[in-house]
Design brief:
By secondary structure, this protein is an alpha/beta fold. It has a single domain, classed as TIM Barrel. Helix content is 45%, strand content 14%. Strands 1-2-3-4-5-6-7-8 form an 8-stranded parallel beta barrel, surrounded by 6 helices. Helix 1 packs parallel to helix 2, helix 3 packs parallel to helix 4 and helix 5 packs across helix 7. The longest helix has 20 residues. The chain is globular and about 45 Å long.
Length: 270
């Protein structure tokens, strides 16, 4: 199985597209994890740069909105369609809202599944705070009712929401691992979705916990003979990244941390 390590554009939006793509390529990433521009000229440039630099992409849907579930699902289909316009390996989706009723959450999953089947592309629902699957308990209820549901495993949100290292949800975690199509490699802890720096000795407990989780995901994908698994190094900028109380500046360099994670993942798993 090929492990593809991708770079997030989150935190790099200030760079012109040409500079971002070149930076990603020179750093040795296999591809990018980002949203497709809506502007026609920017989208054309974006797709051209993907081809020029021979980078893979997991496209990202996070923009869907609507005051009713019908409006929301219509918007969701639009942004999923936009995500298709770049030969994406799969689509990562920030799906629904955490305040949606169970029936509304299931309608979101059904809308995504219909789109996935129609266009022959996998769509993974990110385990993201504020959206469906925001907690292991809510996710398991959805898993029970929708056996086809796939996820992007960002378990940093689950450690934060449950204020634990998931000791009490081992059965749910097992099921989540089986449903994982994509991984966001950010290390969270019991009080937040991102530790300050994975290189620090004082934070090796959560680093070891997450590395063990990712190993289980990789081993499961190998056991079912998957061709590829995509992992995005996704330490984010402030306010995800800690800042100094004196000047509110980031305590470390986001790019360097993500490159460290890329190299750690390769050294450990490839």
């Amino acid at each position: 199985m090929k492990l593809l390590i991708l770079c997030t554009q989150w935190g790099n939006q200030h760079l012109p597209l040409e500079d971002f793509f070149m930076k990603v390529k020179e750093a040795g990433y296999d591809g990018i994890d980002t949203w497709v521009p809506e502007d026609v000229s920017e989208k054309k440039k974006f797709i051209s740069l993907l081809d020029k630099h021979q980078l893979k992409i997991v496209s990202h849907q996070h923009q869907a909105k609507g005051n009713t579930i019908t409006e929301y699902c219509k918007s969701l289909e639009y942004y999923l369609s936009l995500s298709l316009e770049c030969d994406s390996l799969l689509i990562n989706s920030h799906s629904g809202r955490d305040y949606f009723s169970l029936d509304e959450q299931l309608k979101v999953i059904d809308t995504v599944e219909e789109f996935s089947v129609k266009h022959n592309i996998a769509v993974a629902h990110e385990t993201q705070r504020g959206h469906i699957g925001y907690s292991p308990y809510n996710a398991m209820e959805l898993f029970k009712q929708r056996p086809q549901m796939k996820i992007t495993a960002d378990f940093s949100h689950w450690t934060c929401v449950t204020e634990s290292y998931l000791e009490n949800v081992s059965d749910i975690l097992d099921e989540a691992i089986r449903r994982t199509k994509h991984v966001h490699a950010r290390v969270g802890y019991t009080q937040g979705p991102q530790i300050p720096d994975p290189r620090l000795s004082s934070w090796q407990e959560p680093v070891s916990f997450f590395m063990a989780l990712w190993k289980r995901i990789i081993e499961y994908q190998q056991s079912i003979n998957s061709n590829t698994l995509t992992i995005t190094t996704e330490f984010g900028p402030p306010p995800y990244m800690w800042t100094d109380v004196k000047d509110n500046l980031p305590v470390t360099n986001q790019w360097e941390v993500n490159c460290f994670m890329k190299d750690l993942l390769r050294k450990t798993f490839i």
